């Protein structure tokens, strides 16, 4: 059985783009509109010879902030508890938002190893967000660009010991 990796993060940070990058096919819908990925999507990923199953989630994609606690987490939680590693993606250009912090807080209590992915970090655009992300207490973020395919070696090096 392949190791299981789950992608988690607030809407629009690039989860589906990362999924597509690792799976190498356009299996997940990517759009400027948050909420395009309505369901979990499953794929088989390859990263520099590392093979694993990967899940793209949409557990926090809901326009109504009042509904955040609880409801949208259910299906993400189901996937998370079967996972060996969670890739927690944030937008390093936008910096941390309260929702990122809420998700981080939730993730820390789940007992699954987390790799923090500083997405949209092509060029130097992510530097401030990357520094900010140390406040999450989740270790060194992996500077990444799902769109441009940057950071794959760093991701490999973080992932490989965990799966
Ligand atoms: P999701 O809602 O987290 O699944 O995010 P998507 O993968 O749908 O991406 C949201 C938007 O961010 C899209 O317009 C993507 O093209 C864009 N995006 C994703 N990855 C990157 C990246 O590495 N750099 C930049 N600049 N944009 C990105
Ligand atoms: Mg998506």
Describe this structure in words.
Residues 3-163 form the EngA-type G domain. The structure is a single chain. With 163 residues, this protein is α/β, with parallel strands linked by helices. The protein has one domain (4-162): Rossmann fold (3-Layer(aba) Sandwich). The protein is 27% helix and 21% strand. The protein contains five helices and six strands; from the N terminus they run βαββαβαβαβα. It has a six-stranded mixed beta sheet, sandwiched between helices. It is globular and about 40 Å long. The relative contact order is 0.19. The mean pLDDT is 86. The structure holds guanosine-5'-diphosphate (GDP) and magnesium ion. Guanosine-5'-diphosphate (GDP) binds next to helix 1.
